[in-house]
Design goal:
Length: 235
Amino acid sequence: MGQIYLVRHGQASFGAANYDHLSTLGFEQARLLGQWFANSRQTFNRVVCGGMVRHRQTADTCFSELPRALLADTEWITDPGFAEFDHVEVLVKHCPEFADPVRFKAYVANHPEPKRAFEHTFVAGMQRWMGGELDHDYTESWSGFQERCVGALERVAASAEPGDSTIVFTSGGVISAICKHLLDLPAQKSLELNWSIANCSVTKLQHRPGKTSLNYLNNYAHLEWLGEANSVTYR
């Protein structure tokens, strides 16, 4: 039986002009994950990155902590099927005034309840996207995103040799979409799940021909064990 490890990228640069870059803490989270793998002597046959800068930065930083001997036979692949949905488009279609990320960050920061303001605005945008009635408004529909993520998972599983370990560096929305598929979750539950997936957490799948199943979800013990009090983040 083979294993597929899904890693959410380290904390990105929320509120900056370019979100697709790890924050200082995001790099540290990736290092802690690498140290965890090194301590457990974990090896991988393949490394798959979703094509975004933050995915590759997380992978490179993580694997810089592993001994070269553990990486000697590792194959690296980029598969855009594991890229995140366009969260900026989802937000801006709901609130066009937030096309400027600095303006959105200021709105959240100045709100009496910043966390609630962020979640309320983003959830409303997600529900508009997920509703399906306005698919023509988006570059990629919700259903299209789901199909893309499941297709990427199926490609990885189909191309793996028996017993292979594959690690995929991706995003929370992708992991939620895959779990929705594997567990047959309602759309609303997958949205709730997306909120709970920590940066640099690990979700493990097991697969054999014709069957992929969830082994564990959203493990971030490495951050709690090796990191500081603020090492666990969700955005």
